[in-house]
Amino acid sequence: MARKKLPMRQIQEVLRLKHQNQLPLRDIARSCAMALSTVGDYLQRAEAASLGWPLPEGMTEEELVRRLFGGTGPAPSPTQPVPDWASVHQELRRKGVTLLLLWREYRQIYPEGYGYSRFCDLYQAWAGTLCPVLRQVHLPGEKMFVDWAGQTVPIYHADGTESAAQVFVAVLGFSNKIFAEAFPNQQLASWVGAHCHAYAFFHGVARATVPDNTKTGVTQPCRYEPILHRTYQEMAAHYGTVVLPARPKKPRDKAKVEAGVLIAERDILAVLRDQRFFCVVQLNQAIALLVAQLNDKPFQKLGGTRNTWFEESEKAKLLPLPAHPFELALWSAAKVNIDYHVVVAHHFYSVPYTLIHQQVDVRLTETTVELFKAGKRVAAHPRSDQPGRYTTLEEHRPKSHQKYLQWTPGRMVEWAGTIGPGCAKAVESILRDRPHPEMGFRSCLGIIRLGKAVGSVRLEAACRRALHFGTCSYASIHSILKSKLEAQPLEPELPLPSPSHENLRGSPYYN
Fold first, then answer.
1. For residues 1 and 477, what is the distance between their CA atoms, to the nearest angstrom?
2. Alpha-carbon distance 451 to 460, whole Å?
3. Which of 72, 295, 416, 460 could form an S-S bond across to 420 if both were Cys, CB 3.0 to 4.6 Å?
């Protein structure tokens, strides 16, 4: 009766215990957890093949099996023709090609060849040698794997609409402790907030965080140098972890969270499938209870639970949480306008005027607006919720603008009084006659500049002449000074002669 072929390790152990330790067959069978008849059968085969202990150096498992079960000659060749598995593998890459089609083509050439099931088994065995799986061993506190679950949970709103809640799952590499929480969407704020909640749930931070190549976290996926979203990178730096995205289309790089998502879908979402939730908060309350039960559930093949493994071996290895939780900041780019302001959330914030027409980076939080140029912060403002308004720092203005804004109506009149009473009255007249005093600032500043050019005496005389004739303006005073009319005596303005004409009616006509 043919015996089941054992692995080479067990065959070696049987031979070692027999020839080196001189144990009886019953003890060997008990030690190796084998049937007594199986031990006897293998020892008989080894004696027939002249094999003792130790085995010849360099003997492979195939050669040992051949010596024990197939004689000492070379392995017999298969009776059916063996397909070219490399060609089969290459053909399967073509669109629409299946193993069934390739088997049919194979049987057309070799009618006595393998059947379809055997054909598929042999191909799977051959293909399994192409990409061997690396058994990953994770140290305590080393990695946290994160991903969105593929399954969503419906949320029923009071207005009759329905939305899909997204479930975030995080798994620690060593203890397999799971964290799950629902969010209204998969946008950046939810993605970063989910990480922060996971770190708080574990009371520590793993040294590496392994996400998928989701667009909210990885702006440019790459096998070797992925580019992270700036906010995501900032969050990782705040918590002292490093983000190591999995390779694109390589789910084995994050097998822990793939298994965690599957467990969450089976032990959490499937349990809640018949319940109706009207807000995400209500859903998370139900999820939290099931997560606690899941982490306390005993392992099927290992001793303890996720919580016991975490408390005993992994919790102490995690990095401590920072003193303050991460404040979400949104990064964007903006161009500085000609008035040295940038638009952020419909509000205008100033930057140094030397950055006019240049691109700056904007960091926006709930309370602050920071602007950066080449990685250096050039401005910071409290965030304003007033659209269309301006927030300006005085030091951001050019010197000329600062001096211009230092002038007020009162200061202008005060300066004009130092020239003379005529100049003061002229300035007051200009400011009074404009709809808004600031509309006369430019004219008054022009008059101030005229005083610097011609002197106080000439400017005072020109202002008196402009007041006399009721022509107070920068253009009139400038014309008087240019024509040197300020030195001429002031003459009363004579009324124009009224011509006599038969068509002139006179005031009695209207009485």
1. 128
2. 9
3. 460
